[in-house]
Amino acid sequence: MFLKQLSLINFKNYAEFEAKFSEKINCFVGNNGMGKTNLLDAIHYLSFCKSFFNPVDSHNIKHEEGFFVVQGHFDKFGEEIEVHCGLKRNQKKVFKKNKKEYERLSEHIGQLPLVMISPHDTELINGTSELRRKFLDSIISQYDKVYLDKLISYNQVLKQRNALLKHYHETRAFDSETMEAWDEQLIIYGKAIIQIRIDFLKQFIPLFNSYYQFISESKEDAGLRYENSLGERDFKTALITSLSRDRALHYTTVGPHKDDLDFRLNTFSLKKYASQGQQKSYLLALKLAQFEFIKEQKNTKPLLLLDDVYDKLDEERFTKLLEMVSSDKFGQVFITDTHPDRMNELLNQKEIEHKIFLVENSLVKDF
Q1: Angle at 202 between CA 138 and CA 153, to 5 degrees
Q2: Which residues of the chain fall below pLDDT 70?
Q3: pLDDT for residue 212
Q4: Which of 138, 161, 177, 244 has the smallest CB count inside 10 Å?
Q5: H-only helix segments in the chain
Q6: 54 and 60 Cβ atoms separated by less than 8 Å
Q7: 343-358 pLDDT tens trace
Q8: Cα three-residue angle 303-330-220, rounded to 5 degrees
Q9: Would you say 132 and 261 are in contact if contact means Cβ atoms under 8 Å apart?
Q10: How far is C-alpha 66 from the chain's CA centre?
């Protein structure tokens, strides 16, 4: 699978953009602030129906314009696929495949698998548990439609239960039967979500460890563990025992929406004790394992987007990464970098099929 052509109108800093790509390595090069990362984000839209960076769709419309359009032409196992995403201010986002609009955006997730590696990945270590859960959910949702449907249903039930808790607080009333009805639905979806996550990690962790050893060239033990907010309790018991706390706080305090991933290195907290180099290696291994896992599950090579990776790794590690992603094990790759000559020299030295695009003040031309 590869992206043949990308077209943009009024997307972020681009009034217009159109380019055709190599099936292997594509580089957007230029100074910072020119819009290189925005091109990667447009590709991300075509896979996930949303921005990697900004969850508010209207914020991705070019300043003072009334709409944006992102359109891509893909080749997937020889089949031509046209994907269109359009948004007018104060209107519903329109997402189409081969000119047919989706009724539910979730129907598109996983059809064009993609993995993004970005400096923003450090938030997986330093940010909230919500970001780590989203990372987990984004991997599983690309190959497991049942999981995605259960996750959507769980979040809908959770929203209703939280609204009920707030209502009870405001009215100083409580209806145990109504609460139990919502609890039953929460338990059905929640138990399934937790089990699927646990099963996924059993397969994912060996891949992650393998990539970490390759990248770090060390004997460090990289740990990854699922932290279940239920502890040793079953879901029903956890909800019953936490009900008084839920009523006091007006929201549900236990369940898969409160679970986390624990990142460790040699049994110590990655956030507290690992060096920046170790953290970078850990994150890179996570994302490459994500790529490998999705490739195995979907039987296709996801698109790989590498944003500003060179400046986050030393030259030796970046060269090793470049050699890896240019192998037959990987498919189409998009890279941003600030040094056109350096990237061109590296790719020519390795005799890697590639195209380089120079990005300057929202204008893009072949290098």
Answers
A1: 40
A2: 311-312
A3: 92
A4: 177
A5: 36-48, 123-126, 129-141, 145-171, 176-216, 235-241, 243-249, 270-273, 276-298, 315-325, 340-349
A6: yes
A7: 888 888 878 889 999 9
A8: 105
A9: yes
A10: 27
